[in-house]
Description:
seven-stranded mixed β-sheet, globular, Rossmann fold, 29% helix, 5 helices, alpha/beta, two-stranded antiparallel ribbon
Amino acid sequence: MPYNLTYVNGVLVISVVAWSNSGKTTLFEKVVSELESRGIKVGVIKHHSHSTPIDAVGKDSWRYSEAGASAVIISSPDEYGVFRRMPEGEASLVSLCEHLSDEVDLILTEGYKYEGMSKIEFSRKDFNPEPVESPENLIALISDNEERKADLDKRGLKTFNLDDVIGVSNFIESLMRS
């Protein structure tokens, strides 16, 4: 099946969609680790849907933001983080991907259910039996719902078990090569 893949500046972008607290991050942190071990630089964009501070309340960087700074960078020998005020509203997913595209080989996003990116759905049958996404909007399904997996297999979509880190990683890597 030809997949409807999304690229930003030549970098494949895949959104991992699921119901909150279903376990998607637990699986995909292992997928990120596996892909990185293969030499693939992975960028991750995690959506924070609540209007609460992303920065740690009370820390100096938070205090500068509260004082009205338009942007604050916190830096250490190992990493840095940038906090910017968004007076025009939330940044688009495409613009966030553009910020990462020159540094990584692949971008995984989490929490962007309603964006039109390539999507892999993660679902647990007993957690929430309702699909997150319709089949025509997916490139793959990771689930323990054997009925749904069988239906999507018939449609030509890839399906995986909940703990199939290697299979999911192989699939993503094959998409990058296609």
